[in-house]
Structure formats: C-alpha cells, structure tokens
C-alpha cells in the first residue's frame, strides 16, 4: 500500500483513486517488489504461478485486495488437488493497462497483453467492482475467453467471506469456474468441484451457527513452497 501511495503522490496530470479497506490484509510483496509491480501496473506473479517454461492451462487474473486474496486461495486449492494443472497468476494494479495502447496512454500493446494473458487460454478474472468494466476495457483484445467475477449487487449484514460467496467471488466458486472451463480434467476435476460445493454448504452452516467465517478461511495463509518472504498481515 505504501508503494501505491508513493506512486500516486508522485504522479502528475491525471486523477488517482485509492480505495483502502479497514481490515488487516496480507502483504504479498516486499517493498522493493511492490514498488516495481506498482510502477509497471500489471504483471505475472511467478511465485504464485507454476507455468514457468511453458504455456499455462488457465490464467487467473485479479485486481483488488479481496479478489487477490480469493484468487490465491483458489490457486492453493488447485495446486493441492490438481498439481499437474499449469496456472498463471496475473495481478493488476492499473486497470488502464487492460486497454489497448491506442486507446489509453497506460494501455498495453496487443503483443504485451497476449504475453500475459495468452491468445486463447481461459482467463478467470476476479475484480472488486462490476464485471462489465473489465469486459469493456478488453473488448478489442484477441483472447475472448475472459470470464470475470465481481460485484453482482448481492450483499447484506453478514461475514466478510460470505459477501464474496454471495457475489460468487470466493475461492470455492473460482475453483469450480476453472474446472468448468477445463473439461480435460475429467473425474479429478469433477471430484474437486463436488468438494467445493460441499465446502460452500459447510460455510453456510458454520456462519449460521457461529456468526463468523470458518477457521480455514479466517486463518488461511499462503503456504506454497515458492512463498515470498513478505506475506505477513498488515492493517
């Protein structure tokens, strides 16, 4: 967050909108990596991906603190249960990077965009706003296999994770979405999809009884062997 604020304070001749939550959230990058990432505005998180040296089977994109948390939660589930699945994680800080360079000065060229998102693989994109915005920003891009999960006008007084469940932005729905797009996963994918459905039911029952999210959600941490050293929680 400090690197974002520094970038905004140093920028000139355009409007910055900074949206910051009040809850403690994980810090995924150390200050040096965060400075580079925020300056670039978009990039592959190699430490969360496992497609190095080849093409991914699926691309998981994210923009925003909560969507990023849920995408990484989904990635951890997929890598545990389907370790052969090649996943690429692309994190977006500057949404205008999704537009063509011909339409916005921050936009990526088609070549650079395709190098991140591929030209034909399915993209599951989690966003902290209306999904239609991402579709509008990317409608000129070659890869039409874009599936955006975001705010769908659902919500009430409930737990933080249940708000994500109601908008189908949670890790369990994201895992199911990946499986639906990759029929080659066969029975292993079907079994994992059923497990995610069971988890959603378990979640509903737990919050009804306890009034808070399940411990596996509240206490979840990224624990991949490629974990970066700075995934601490900050307020």
Please provide a brief summary of the model.
By secondary structure, the protein is α/β, with parallel strands linked by helices. The protein has 9 helices and 7 strands. The C terminus is likely disordered.
Architecture overview:
With 235 residues, the chain is α/β, with parallel strands linked by helices. Helices cover 42% and strands 12% of the residues. The chain has nine helices and seven strands. The protein has helices at residues 2-10, 31-40, 65-81, 110-117, 131-137, 160-166, 171-181, 186-210, 215-218; strands spanning 25-26, 42-44, 58-63, 87-92, 122-127, 146-149, 233-234. Helix 3 (65-81) crosses helix 7. The longest helix is centred in the last third of the chain and has 25 residues, at 186-210. The protein is globular, with a radius of gyration of 18 Å. The termini are close together.
Compute the separation of the termini in Å. 10 Å
Biggest sheet strand order reads 2-4-3-5-6
Low-confidence stretches are: 229-235
Strand residues, percent: 5-15%
The helicity comes to: 40-55%
What would you call the structural class? alpha/beta
Major beta-sheet overview: 5 strands, mixed
Shape: globular
Radius of gyration: 18 Å
Global mean pLDDT: 90
What are the secondary-structure elements, in order, as H or E?
Answer: HEHEEHEHEHEHHHHE
Q: Report the strand count.
A: 7
